[in-house]
Amino acid sequence: MKFKSVFALLLAVASFSSLANEAKQQVLDTAHTMWDNARNAQLVRMWDNAPTDHTYFVAGLPLWSKQDTLGTFTAMFEGVTRQDIETVREEVTMLSDSAAVYTADMTYTQYDAQGNVLVPTSPYAMTIVFVLRDGQWMNLHSHQSFPSAE
């Protein structure tokens, strides 16, 4: 009888671990889709997975809605037709079965339509809070920081 209880416990732990790994991969896939859209300067598509109450803090500037984020990024991306985005390191921490934190060290380079460099390769850090809503991982809050100019 004790063996069955231990076996059931091990099975439950293994099942939870498998579900957690699957959720982590879904979060990574969602983030990677955002980066793919950002590479092509597809700003609206980049924020497809952000709800209207999305918040974004970029370089200390608070943006309190998805609409504010789109407006700011449209201005920031003026003339940009593509980006090279490299993920140096990324991590997903599951907070629950429906909430996760994505963190990444990244670099980007921005180009215009003629291939001229608009912004040379620069590092930045991303933190995104993802929540599971209606079966989709949604970007509820993003924070992007850049190193100081010292």
UniProtKB/TrEMBL annotation:
UniProt key word Disulfide bond: no
UniProt-listed SUPFAM superfamilies: NTF2-like (SSF54427)
Organism: Vibrio superstes NBRC 103154
Keyword S-adenosyl-L-methionine: no
Pfam families: SnoaL_3
Official protein name in the record: SnoaL-like domain-containing protein
Sequence ranges assigned to domain SnoaL-like in this UniProt record: 26-147
Signal peptide: 1-20
Protein keywords: Signal
